[in-house]
Design goal:
single chain, about 170 residues, alpha+beta, four-stranded mixed sheet, 7 helices, 4 strands, about 45% helix
Length: about 170
């Protein structure tokens, strides 16, 4: 019986190769992405391979956890998948939150939306952890569309794009 349960568990866990293949699929569904990120092993893999080394070196990845898999507002859930991950810092003196928005197309207001999510994460932290530990929040866009991400990546780029857009085309 124990052998049967062990085999079922192995079938549930994706191998690194399978995970890499799934993450490389263009237009991977937000449900699939959320399912992968809810498992600490897969969240660690994603962080190690898709985030900067400077950021992952700050985090104690052994204790990474997914706090939310439906953090975005309901009106944008149709085209944005989202995950909020949390891990203690090295040494364990604070927290690192990562907001990952998974999308297959760009939107000119994405930087503003990330800023909004940043503020929501800080409020969530203040409500759940009642101490004065330092908090870092990092946004990330995991783009699964064709080519490079075509949208703005900073608020400055978004403002420039809005300022240069003729009225009626926004």
């Amino acid at each position: 019986m124990a052998n049967k349960n062990n085999k079922q568990q192995q079938q549930k866990n994706l191998t690194d190769q399978q995970l890499r293949q799934l993450l490389a699929i263009q237009g991977v569904s937000s449900e699939c992405f959320r399912y992968m990120m809810c498992q600490p092993k897969h969240a660690r893999y994603f962080c190690k391979h898709y985030l900067t080394k400077k950021l992952t070196n700050k985090m104690y990845l052994r204790q990474i956890e997914m706090l939310s898999d439906r953090f975005v507002d309901p009106h944008v859930q149709a085209y944005i998948g989202d995950v909020v991950l949390r891990a203690p810092t090295r040494p364990k003196q604070g927290w690192v939150y990562i907001i990952i928005l998974q999308c297959c197309r760009s939107h000119p207001l994405m930087p503003f939306y990330l800023d909004h999510c940043h503020k929501r994460v800080l409020k969530m932290h203040a409500a759940t952890i009642k101490d004065d530990t330092p908090v870092d929040v990092y946004p990330a866009i995991y783009y699964t569309g064709q080519g490079r991400y075509p949208g703005p990546t900073t608020v400055e780029e978004a403002l420039e794009g809005i300022a240069n857009t003729p009225i009626g085309e926004a």
